[in-house]
Amino acid sequence: MTMANVERKPNCDIIIVGGGSAGTLLAARLSEEPDSRVLLIEAGDEAADPDIWKPAAWPTLQGRSYDWDYRTEPQAGTAGRVHHWARGRLIGGSSCLHAMGYMRGHPSDFQTWVDATGDCRWSWDELVPVFQAIEDHPLGGDGIHGKGGPLAIHLPADEVSPLARAFIEAGAALGLPRLEGHNSGEMIGVTPNSLNIRDGRRVTAADAWLTKAVRGRKNLTILTGSRVRRLNLEGNQVRSLEVAGRQGPVEVFANQVVLCAGALESPALLMRSGIGPHDVLDAAGVGCLIDMPEIGRNLQDHLLGAGNLYAARKPVPPSRLQHSESMAYMRAAVFTATGQPEIVVGCGVAPIVSERFQAPAAGTAYSLLFGITHPTSRGSLRISGPEVGDRLIINPAYLQTDRDRKMFRQALEAARTIGHEDELADWRERELLPRALNSAAEMDDFIAQSVITHHHPCGTCRMGKDLDAVVDANLRLKTLDNLFVVDASIMPNLTAGPIHAAVLAIAETFARWHRKMDPERIPMR
């Protein structure tokens, strides 16, 4: 693309890059101001596949045309395996693909964010009203959960699988508290998972925020099938964006740019634009305009062992929800301890295993999934070339620390302890996986073969007050006045469970700050 052939588009006030969970929320919230012209740019199309809204169909969505289907580098910590990372390429993003679990996180998770930024807006206490504004929860109005917000939260009851009920009873028998969902601030315990489902259908972020009324706003434009190739800089601001779409190359201009392209594509766009680690950009053939060594680093993801597999004594009925019906969070090695979770065991109402194992027929077996909540391994992301089609080099550095390997062994032991409890005796015929494990090395080998991604990449444009942090507490890129990053990439560390709720809270917090700020605080072009 040469700029001589680029059509110049009229200016708008705000460009949002990425129509996933954060981008759809921000498009709705920032366009509430009628004088603010908002452009949302999404690489994919509108969601159309009817399977998206069928909760039990979610595992089959991966690999379809609207999945980016990224591939990691071979991972030494997982027996040299390459992992597929499903991410949504459509309006609504990964909220159209994920398992619909809604878990805010533990209060201690967000204290780490406060410590990183020095800003109490990122504390649990300050985020509770933000979460409440997002949620329409059956317990809403109790002072903890939200009522009447855009996003439906379903707390399953009668439709919970009898197998999952037995799993919950087994955890309770071992001393885990019974909870009403995972979102009160207490996460350690047993409960059915809270889910983004209403009337038996998935609720995506686009369903929640890009309603017919929002889409009808004259000041909001949604551009699909378009990728931002590069940010063009002028001084300490973004001057314009080069966009490749169905109508050919265009150049678009805005006073402010907000990146919501996710933990992979937001740092990749910065790097293609000459902003990032000097050595990475040199290797990719991109001239370095602003050397920011931390962009693309601090990559984190949750893993789940798949799985601790059991042959069933009787047919396991199909899930009426989405197969993974209950996650039990706990401290390692002590079922009765409280506080911030360290490990998790989940009940899979299906024989869920990694690609290294043969899954039995549906209905004949079930899996207990196991993982750690706060891995200490840190990976990286880098571009391989200057164009949008050049492969991203994704190295999550799975299981590279002794602590992570030790905690995973404890998570496996916890799964097997629950799996052999009397409360599951009516379902358990025999344990199929793992087979006999006689040493820590054998446990590590099984874990390496069995783990799969929990689909929670984050951290690659982390926020912080330290000089190396990529964005500040207001989510502004530290080296530019009018560029913000608002997605999972800014998280300094993982929350204890699925990160979708936290991503939405990040976007809502930014929207609130943006509406309150003095316009003079963000220089306009």
UniProtKB/TrEMBL annotation:
Residues noted as binding FAD in the record, renumbered to the chain: V228
InterPro entries the UniProt entry points to: FAD/NAD-bd_sf, GMC_OxRdtase, GMC_OxRdtase_N, GMC_OxRtase_C
Keywords: FAD, Flavoprotein
Pfam families for the chain: GMC_oxred_C, GMC_oxred_N
Molecular function terms from GO: flavin adenine dinucleotide binding; oxidoreductase activity, acting on CH-OH group of donors
Gene3D superfamilies reported in the protein's UniProt record: FAD/NAD(P)-binding domain (3.50.50.60), Glucose Oxidase, domain 3 (3.30.560.10)
Family: Belongs to the GMC oxidoreductase family.
Name of the featured protein: Pyridoxine 4-oxidase
Organism (species): Phyllobacterium bourgognense
